[in-house]
Specification:
Elements (H helix, E strand, L loop, with lengths): L3 E3 L9 H7 L8 E3 L7 H7 L4 H10 L9 H12 L10 E3 L6 E5 L9 H19 L3 E6 L4 H9 L5 E8 L5 H8 L6 E7 L5 H13 L1 H7 L1 E2 L6 H18 L7 E6 L4 H12 L3 E8 L4 H8 L1 E3 L19 H8 L4 H14 L1 E3 L2 H8 L2 E5 L2 H15 L5 H12 L1 H4 L4 E5 L7 H8 L11 H6 L7 E4 L3 H17 L2
Parallel strand pairs: 4-14, 5-6, 5-8, 6-7, 7-15, 9-10, 9-14, 10-13
Antiparallel strand pairs: 1-2, 3-4, 11-12
Helix pairs in contact: 3-4, 3-10, 4-5, 5-6, 5-10, 6-7, 10-11, 16-17, 16-19
């Protein structure tokens, strides 16, 4: 049976179910499979004509032992998870007219119109499946910079085995994103709007880490998470890299490039692991906004935390790309002692310089570029004016970065990941297009509906977030569980 271990090496190996329900490993590390499956060219050839759901079944089956989830159960979980998606193909690809062999992969056709739906549709249903089987309850807690929260809330809503607490920096996400969480009236959904977070979502992550370290509280409320610290998110996101590959190549073995708008490195980690498994990817481009955390890592070997810059691509306004530690585990031969030492050094000092050998190992096949707001807005306008296609600001970051590095990328086909629908960012779209009138492509029926509903939300200042959260969560637990 495939086992899962902490990349810090401080806990015994666990099975898939335990890794998913725990979220974080007990030593503060991230769960990783002890080995990654190796996928041959022959296997890729067999998969090339599969639908998205068929492909997901094949790839997930490599990570999930049949004694934990049967083939029939996995197929049903996938069918249920992706039933609410608007497009039959789940993830359509749009070829650009203005750039040869360049495709936009639309990851935003789920119910909350962001790529987080891709991972969370499956993961939340999977967690609930395990809980129902064990007759247990979990308290999910996630921090969001705009997309994880709405998706977590949507897929958790009404599930009696789950409570979901979604924390967001009040001034740093759009009203549209906020209403996707606060307009849900389900008793098990608890949006938490936190004001005055100097470092945005990273501040919220720090408080969540403290709650995890509070062992009595963690055990009483059965805390877990479905953000990208959870292996299930990264595992599920590997699928769309394989799917994109099959959609654009002329023959198996041909290499492609992918540009990924990136902050926390969760989505990009999935792409990196897909390549480690055998997917023929030439370059993965880490497309940063001006919060250049990944550009520093992949251009200079420096892992450092700088002051937050609020940008037009707010979902990737992230300072600490936590999933990089998960990827690094595989690039240093599973050396958990080194991973732990590096994580501890960074935690203590806020900065870390990797030695040349380690830098060369993890940066091979990676490019990185930081994109300004001016570049982002200009590209949205250029593509809309020139070919009538509307990019969200994050896809614009991805395309702009690939334009800058086009020579280094080479002539291979390029897939740019579009991680959210433009309707989530109307003010940015107005600013880009120099007009008060939003085009139809910048609207979505779910966003318009949410504007008509009342909001339910906890309001809190960051300075008192930890005690306020403990009070609210414990009170809710006692009132609803009678304990």
């Amino acid at each position: 049976m495939l086992k899962y271990i902490s990349n810090k090496g401080g806990v015994e190996p666990v099975d898939f179910e335990t890794a998913i329900l725990d979220g974080f490993a007990a030593d503060g590390g991230l769960y990783v499979p002890q080995t990654l499956p190796a996928i041959s060219a022959e296997q890729l050839e067999k998969w090339k004509n599969l639908t998205y759901l068929e492909l997901a079944f094949e790839i997930l089956s490599l990570f999930i032992d049949r004694s934990i989830i049967s083939a029939a159960e996995l197929k049903q979980l996938l069918t249920t998870a992706y039933a609410p998606f608007e497009k039959r193909e789940i993830i359509p690809l749009h070829p650009l007219k203005s750039r040869k062999n360049t495709y936009i992969m639309e990851l935003f056709h789920g119910p909350t119109i962001s790529f987080k739906d891709i991972g969370l549709a499956f993961l939340v249903n999977l967690v609930n499946f395990f809980l129902q089987r064990k007759d247990q309850h979990l308290t999910l807690i996630v921090a969001t910079t705009g997309d994880t929260g709405p998706a977590t809330a949507y897929f958790s809503a009404g599930k009696s085995n789950l409570d979901a607490w979604v924390l967001y920096p009040k001034e740093m996400i759009t009203q549209e994103q906020e209403r996707q969480m606060t307009s849900l009236q389900h008793a098990n959904i608890h949006p938490f709007a936190v004001s005055n977070c100097p470092e945005g979502g990273d501040d919220l992550d720090a408080v969540i880490s403290k709650l995890y370290a509070n062992q009595n509280f963690k055990e009483k409320l059965q805390l877990s998470s479905v953000n990208s610290i959870n292996w299930g998110r990264v595992m599920m996101q590997t699928v769309h890299y394989f799917y994109a590959y099959f959609q654009v190549v002329d023959q198996i073995g041909e290499k492609i490039n992918l540009s990924v708008p990136s902050g926390g490195f969760g989505n990009l980690c999935a792409g990196a692991l897909a390549r480690e498994m055998g997917l023929p990817i030439k370059n993965l481009l880490a497309a940063n906004n001006q919060n250049s955390c990944l550009e520093r890592i992949f251009s200079t070997g420096k892992f450092s935390k700088e002051a937050l810059i609020n940008t037009q691509s707010s979902a990737i306004d992230i300072l600490i790309p936590f999933n990089f530690w998960r990827y690094l585990y595989f690039k240093v031969g599973g050396d958990t002692q080194r991973i732990k030492a590096w994580m501890d050094e960074f935690s203590a000092s806020g900065t870390l310089q990797f030695d040349p050998q380690v830098f060369a190992s993890y940066s091979q096949g990676f490019l990185a570029n930081s994109v300004t707001d001016e570049q982002t807005l200009a590209l949205i306008k250029e593509i809309y004016t020139g070919e009538g296609y509307l990019l969200d600001p994050h896809a614009a970051v991805g395309l702009s970065a690939s334009d800058t590095l086009r020579e280094q990328l080479g002539t291979e086909k390029l897939v740019v990941l579009a991680t959210a629908h433009p309707a989530k960012f109307p003010e940015t779209i107005r600013r880009a297009l120099n007009g008060a009138e939003l085009p139809l492509a910048a609207t979505h029926h779910s966003i318009e509906s949410a504007k008509k509903y009342s909001q339910k939300v906890h309001l809190c200042e960051y300075q008192v977030l930890e005690p306020a959260l403990i009070h609210a969560m414990q009170s809710n637990w006692e009132l609803t569980k009678g304990q």
